[in-house]
Structure formats: structure tokens, C-alpha cells
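ok trying this again, last paste got cut off
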Amino acid sequence: MNDVPAPPDRAAEFIERGRQAAAREDWKAAVTAWIAGSNAGSVQSANLVVTGIAPLKALADAGDVDAQALVAGALLDFVDDSALPMVLTYATAAVRAGHPAAQRTLGFLYHTGRGVQADSFQAEALFTAAAKAGDAYAAFNLAGMHINGDTRVRDHDECLRLLRQAVEGGVTQAAAVLGDRLAAIDEDAEALSWYLHAAERGHTGAMFAAACWYRDGLGTAPDPVQAVRWFLAMLDRGNGDGIHEAIQLVKRGMTEEQIRSAGEMADRSSEAETLITMAREHGW
């Protein structure tokens, strides 16, 4: 259920924000911040989420609906399957009050059969209710059900609408999936725009897709500079799969100016200079 990790400094901000909230004994704000820090890639923040569950449960047990929904999600994502009965209890309680995040959590349990018997109809109903209330991740999950044929009626247009809702709600992965769905019906220009949306927010798969589309001229004119830019940008996420592709483009006859431009846009000037050195040495 996590999205693309944010830069490490953002994780530190979330950790500090959570600690400040915990000092005020605002455990809902603390756990929410630490979950965001975990989503940003911090193991430390994930561990802090676990420490915040006990005081959050006290609020949930006192009838705080927001705490019930939050503790259900935290238990699901940060504790092993022994916590599933509690996830079910707290999520069900918050769903009775119409809480969208709890509807999404309970829908996830029914969709995956974790802690309950799998029931795609229940999952669809819960995701639908949460999405209508504005929950972006529920919209994304429901779009996935349409893609996989798990809904009562498979609806391509509704799937696209849900993916757009998820993107508007900040779900970066939804932009990459939206690109895939549009590419499948040859809406190449719009597909590329969504790949770029996800790439600019750190989605590695979308970076690779955008680079390949610029290389091959899909949805746009061929642009080796933009292609190399996105192949190099993947390195920021620890993914070197684009390096070979960048080398192949350089071998086709890119100028040193083009290579440097790509490196500057990717904030990878050092790697661009390495490519230039390779081209000189091999006479490309």
C-alpha cells in the first residue's frame, strides 16, 4: 500500500515531526508522521510506528474513530499476521462510522483474504465507498480490481477515472499504471505524459518507460537527450538498468553537448562525463 519512496531528508523531517507530536501526546499525528517517514524509506520511522501503536490503541479503545482506522492500518502494515484479528476489530468498528481509510483497510482484507474469507464483492463495495469519500488509495485499489477482472462489471472507462482520481490524490504509482492502460489503447501522447508525471516523482519504472518512449519516438518525436536523461535519473533510485540503454544511444552518435545536457537534466553530470570519455576512447 506504500507509494514511491521520498528522498531521505524527507524521512528525517517526518521522524522529527512525529517526535514533536509524541511529546505533545498527539499520538494520531505522531503515528501518521512516522508512517509517512516509513513510506519515505526509513526503517527507523517504521520502528517508531510500532512504538506508537500502544498509545494509539488506548485512544481507539476509548472510541476515537480516527484512531481506530489508523491503528488498523498500522497493525496491518507494520505487524505480522498475528495482529490480523485486531486489524479486523478496529477496522470494522471504524467502518461502522463510515471512515474511508478503515473502509479501504477492511476492503484490502477481503480482497486478499487476510484474516477473513476472501470476498471480492465485499472488497469492491468497501473500496467503492472509500473512493467516493475521496480516499486515493482506495480508488487505486479499485482500479486494480477492474484491471484484474475482480469487479462485478469490468469497466475500462471507470478504471481510467479511478486511476486519475488516485493520481490527483498523490498516488504516484497510479500515474505509471495509467500510462500503461493508455498505452494499451494506443493513446501514446497521453500515456507518455503520465509516465513523465510518475518519473518526475521518482517512479523508476516510469523513468525507464519514458526513456524508452523518447528513444523510440512513441507519443513524441525521438529525443535521445531526454531518453538518456531518464536512463541516468534511474540511478537516483539505485537502479542501473538504464545505463546499458544510455550507452547504446551514445554509440548511435550523440554529440558531447547532447550527453552533457542529458546529464545536467538528470543531475548526473559525472556519469555523463563518463559516457563522453567512453565515446572518445572507443571512437563512437
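PB: full thing came through this time. Residues 189-284 form a domain with the Serine Threonine Protein Phosphatase 5, Tetratricopeptide repeat fold (CATH 1.25.40).
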